[in-house]
Amino acid sequence: QVQLVESGGGLAQPGGSLRLSCAAAKNRDSRRFNIDTMAWYRQTPGNQRELVAEIHTGGVTNYADSVNGRFTISRENAKDTVFLQMNSLRPEDTAVYYCKAVMTLPPRLELPFWGQGTQVTVSS
Q1: Along the chain (124 residues), what's the average pLDDT of each consecutive run of 10 residues?
Q2: Rounded distance between C-alpha atoms, residue 57 and residue 35, angstroms
Q3: Cα 124–Cα 10–Cα 83 angle in degrees, nearest 5
Q4: DSSP designation for 88
């Protein structure tokens, strides 16, 4: 069992910036397993949830084309915390942003965990 706590969402003007944070808290039984991947997704009404950015152990990252060059994902592995720095925000970035953590259980099982989401609104 893993609990994800998100923060940093809110209202920003076009061209502004926001920084999202997500901390993964393990319980007694899951503490011995590693979180391999952490990611941010977003979703708007009538659309599927889409990947914004992800980061793996070792620092390998992947970005959606729509945010590449504007957003930066990073993590603190020791604390299982992931960040999303969002710069040059646009109205089309408005969405509910969800944090995701993937825990690896030997030998090849992956268990995904989701946060409850945080609203990001970009408007004048």
Answers
A1: 94 98 93 94 97 94 97 89 97 98 93 97 96
A2: 8
A3: 125
A4: S
